[in-house]
Amino acid sequence: MNDPMEAFYETGSPGDRIINAMLAPSGKRIDGIYEILSKMIDRFALVSFSSSYEDLPMWAYYGSNFAGMCLEFDSAELAIGDFQGERLRPVIYARNALPSLSVADMAPERLEEAVTARITRKRIEWAHEKEWRFITGEVGPKHYLDDALRRVFLGPRVQPEHAARICEVLDRRPVEVLQGEIRGFELTFRPIKLATPLEECERVGAGRFDPAEHLYAEKEIREFLTVPFDNLHEECRRTALRPNMEELAGVDLVGGDKSAIYFWTTYKLRNGREIYHKRYFDRRLGLIADRT
Q1: What gap in Å lies between CA 126 and CA 284, rounded to an integer?
Q2: Would you tell me the crossing angle of helices 16-23 and 30-42 to the nearest 10 degrees?
Q3: pTM of the full predicted structure?
Q4: Which long-range contacts (CB under 8 A, 24 or more apart) does 275-278 make?
Q5: With 90 as the cut, is the pLDDT of residue 20 above it?
Q6: How is the chain split into domains, by residue range?
Q7: Residue 202's Cα: distance from chain center in Å?
Q8: In the prediction, which pLDDT does 250 show?
Q9: Closest Cα partner for 45 from 94, 1, 96, 99?
Q10: In what order do the strands lie in the sheet with 88-90?
């Protein structure tokens, strides 16, 4: 990382001498506990995003001096792939670092938040980055649904052969590619490749949807909905069109209270891994975003 204060944290507290005295009969010291904590934190990986593609300094030092590219993701869809179960957290910009991690911070109910707060904290001078982060427990490539990537912005200094190659790779993907242009003090972008309609996209999953099989609770669902049943059928069809959709495993009402409809969907990522995801809808087929 280009910031030597990135993900900065220290360990130790004034009370460590008291704890060391308590541990003395066993031959242990608090340093050993901190060493285990540091090894755990060292295994973490950060995946960083920004709220905007228009920050010029970001193009200079992260976008190959305006010759690179910026990827725009739908964060909700991105979380369905290899980031499933992870939280996208905003970076907090401050003038001072947080206090050292102490033994009290290592309590199970406090540890995750204590560590995360330090890994998502930077000096105030970096506030223009408007950064968000996934903190993952494993280093390596992260795969996502094809339609989680919405747009690719190419810098105004991108090499023509690189732009052509990117458009070729994304030819049958639901992704728009835009080329940057400089006009005076203004950076603008024009489309050079439109997003391919879902019906024409390269498929990764089989896209299996059989109304007779997957809408087996039709009678109960009709009674629940305040919109035409055909609207639900159309939502199922749109879901099946998604490039990574493998199978619509089931559509039914939630539990005994029947307060929502769920879609239980299997997706296949480009690394071959299959993932499962549930979406919840209300009586008007409005997506319930905060339901788990």
Answers
A1: 43
A2: 110
A3: 0.88
A4: 275/80, 275/81, 275/84, 276/249, 277/80, 277/84
A5: no
A6: 16-136, 146-200, 211-281
A7: 23
A8: 87
A9: 1
A10: 45-50, 131-136, 88-90
